[in-house]
Amino acid sequence: MVRAVVCRALGAPETLRLEQSPSRALGPGEVRVAIRAAGLNFPDVLMAAGEYQLKPELPFTPGMEAAGDVAEVGAEARGVAIGDKVIVKMRHGAFTDEAVVTPAQLTPKPSTFDYAEAATYLAGHGTAYHALIDRGRVEPGEVLLVHGAGGGVGLAAVEIGKMLGATVIATASSDEKLAIAKSRGADHLVRYDREPFRDAVKRITDGRGADVVFDPVGGQVFEDSMRCIAWGARLLVIGFTGGIGSAKTNLLLIKGASVLGVRAGEAVRKNPALGEVRLKALLQWAEEGKLRPNVSHRLPLEDYAKAMRLLIDRKAIGRVALVME
């Protein structure tokens, strides 16, 4: 019997249920993966609540990414063998003991990562890559302001931004989160409750402002960001965990600034070539030890609601993983 977290009614994490069902037979071109760990992302919470842009038919299993071992290879499935250690990319369905997928959804697990790290790598770091490289086009020497730097995608942006040669200003809500951001390369640290970040950015840059703003928070944070940007700045809209902000067109005009939406997954579906370049780079950087997700919590599958609450309550530092035992 296979365990899976199932959403039968939209709502809070506690409305989900851990259910068991028989393994299903493989179809042509399919592969069975024994899941060893699954990564949590904020869209999983939104999807279960019916508040995400993708709305799967009920019932469904949340979870966008996982890692494990190939356990069975169906007829016509090519390029994969039993025993391969892989990352599994999904739109949903990862919170389970096993997944039936196609070879196209599999990526080799970096040898430098354990399963929890592998299961929490591609979504967060892929979003940061797409934001900073494809959309923001960060250049060496530019100032990058990263909001929510203690979260999974924010911490990934700190790592990649520093690797690209930017001066990174990290903002977060606690000293503990900022300490991790510093360990991943942040040059300047700002706690939201100690100094308005717009004042801190002006102080750090001698009044010039940030060239690129990485914003997964939204709301007032987005609106205040427009008041501490340099000429030609790019404001990257990653998400809106803090609400939906309004773009003041006069501020954007005065600074010659751009607001850019970031949807890493959709960008690849529209242009698969983008995804190939991104994946190759991320895997290479992982093998070289340049990037590594910070997994602050590893919980058993049955604690899925507690794990999702860590994201909602912003208690995670980096990533959270469900670990199958």
TrEMBL record:
Record-linked InterPro entries: ADH-like_C, ADH-like_N, ER, GroES-like_sf, NAD(P)-bd_dom_sf, Zn-ADH-like_protein
What are the recorded GO MF terms, alphabetically?
Answer: oxidoreductase activity
Protein name listed in UniProt: NADPH2:quinone reductase
Gene3D superfamilies reported in the protein's UniProt record: Medium-chain alcohol dehydrogenases, catalytic domain (3.90.180.10), NAD(P)-binding Rossmann-like Domain (3.40.50.720)
Q: Which organism is it from?
A: Bradyrhizobium huanghuaihaiense
- List, alphabetically, the Pfam families matched: ADH_N, ADH_zinc_N
What CDD domains does its record include?
A: QOR1 (cd08241)
Tell me which residues make up the Enoyl reductase (ER) domain: 11-322
